[in-house]
Amino acid sequence: MEKMTISDIARALNVPCPGEGEITGICTDSRQVAPGCLFVAIQGENFDGHDFIPAALEQGAACALAHRPGDWPAGKVLMVDDTLKALLALSAWYRGQMPARVVGITGSVGKTTTKEMTAAVLSARFRTIKTQGNLNNEIGAPKTLFTIHRDTQAAVIEMGMTGFGEIRDLAQAAKPELGIITNIGVAHMEKLGSRENIRKAKLELAECLPDGATLLLCGDNDLLREVKIPRLSCIFYGIDNKNCQICGTIRSSTPLSTSFDISWQGERYSASIPGAGNHLVLAALAAFGAGVSMGMAPEEAAAALAGYAPAGMRQNVVEKGGVTVIEDCYNASPDSMAAALATLGSFPAAGKKIFVASDMLELGEIAGRCHRKIGETAAQSGADVLLACGELAREMVEAAREAGMADARFFPEKKELSAALVQMARPGDLIWFKGSRCMKLEEVVEDLYASLK
Of 165, 168, 248, 357, which is most buried with the most CB atoms under 10 A? Predict the structure, then answer.
């Protein structure tokens, strides 16, 4: 972060300045306070940051942001109406001081992978920063904006949401000049009620783009291919929809890599990425589109895709003890589950193809139907075995059995699933782990690795 003064912050937030001092960082966790930082006291469901203001100041915070009165040291606390809103407003002011070109990315699924690929492409030409991990909400996105420096040329900002207005708030702070919407699925159906409402919430990103800006949209998605915004330059990308301006054709694919061609403005460009699946190629097409829209040569943008590396446990491929494992247990939705099963089924394997799954969350009243649909998909995918845990996953297994899958097993506890998988796994097997983050399927992954020599 570029240095700010307490008076800068007070002016940006239009509040009285308590005193002078220099700010060298932003912190919302008192355990991570560094000397010279601004400690923002966030009031959450379980903890209230205001309770930690004295400790933060004692640890060297130059100032604190608060919306609740307290016995604070004189000249050390800026009082605002709402610290969460103030954090976002301050990040908007800070970003406005920086000349970086911002790419905003949202979507029901695929936004983190698309963010990583876009950053890989832009990094080949520009000094680029990106959202770390999935810090894509009203706390995480401002923290990313504060990492922009005066010499930053490009910033790739991921934007998540659970309801209306959230993408708009993040985009108004980030001020993107280019947008990407990856997919309209059923994640957050519990709160928004329909895919059309989910599209409406995601398109808040488009509302915040300047006239003439590029908006990249997945043309393979049934709801996105219908989007028409005359004031923007809408560019569609896809694999199945050959009417897209950016089209991908897969040449070859293994669990470790995919080679494909990109068609753009009458020419074809060769590219390759680590990992496999149509969903990864779609992310690559969006990243390519961002690169050329930012002025990169098509050849340069296509070649830069090889620098992509999976983030966290998103389709990370590990070979251990003769077993190939795909760690893909950071998030799960019906769309990403189906994509994983399709990719698993397409691969040759010397041994069994085993799909290890857990619950998909935030689906509301359609949860049971979605889990049954994935069970049916598993039975038709070419996977040999389905192992699943979690209360909702029971319906997935039942549907897989009803659809003809000979080996589909439900486990009430992860330890039981781990024991069965350890006993089953043999060299030559291909095992794909997929589930929502809070289901912690990585615990099963760790048990499996401990058993493989």
Answer: 357
